[in-house]
Amino acid sequence: MRSGCQGGLIHGRIYPPTNRKNGMDRQPNIMQVIWGVALAAAGVGVFIMLPQRMAQIAEARQVAASSLEMLFLWFCFILLGILLVGGGLRKIYFSLKPSAHDDKN
């Protein structure tokens, strides 16, 4: 097992060099947190704009709001919003959570 600031290939993944020794001094990667917030915000935006956009789509396509086509679109957009919010919150959580390796002394 290597320690120190070398990067390299570990378990089939390429890791960049780090400044810490043995995982100590772990700080959250601010870019990962920002990306998580952006994903969650995009998901919330989907939920906020969904009723307005679905009305516009129904009007443009000239279909009833309760048609199978519109219900399928509702389902897809709701699923998209859930995945965006869930992915963003997961990224934030795991970026800020201390790893199990950091807890060991």
Describe this structure in words.
- With 105 residues, the chain is mainly alpha-helical.
- It has one domain (29-103).
- The protein has three helices and two strands; from the N terminus they run ββααα.
- The protein has helices at 30-61, 68-96, 100-103; strands at residues 8-10, 13-15.
- It has a two-stranded antiparallel ribbon with strand order 1-2.
- A hairpin with a 2-residue loop joins strand 1 (8-10) and strand 2.
- The longest helix has 32 residues, at 30-61.
Alpha-carbon distance between the termini?
Answer: 17 Å
Order of strands in the sheet with most strands? 1-2
Which radius of gyration do the C-alpha atoms yield? 21 Å
Integer count of domains = 1
Helicity level: 55-70%
Instruction: Please identify the structural class as seen in this structure.
Output: mainly alpha
Task: Please give the largest β-sheet.
Answer: 2 strands, antiparallel
**Average of the residue pLDDT scores:** 81
**Count of DSSP-assigned helices:** 3
* H-E order: EEHHH
Beta percentage is 5-15%
How is the topology of this model organized?
Blueprint: E1 8-10, E2 13-15, H1 30-61, H2 68-96, H3 100-103
Antiparallel strand pairs: 1-2
Task: List descriptors.
mainly alpha; two-stranded antiparallel ribbon; 6% strand
Describe the structure concisely:
By secondary structure, the chain is mainly alpha-helical. The protein contains three helices and two strands, in the order ββααα.
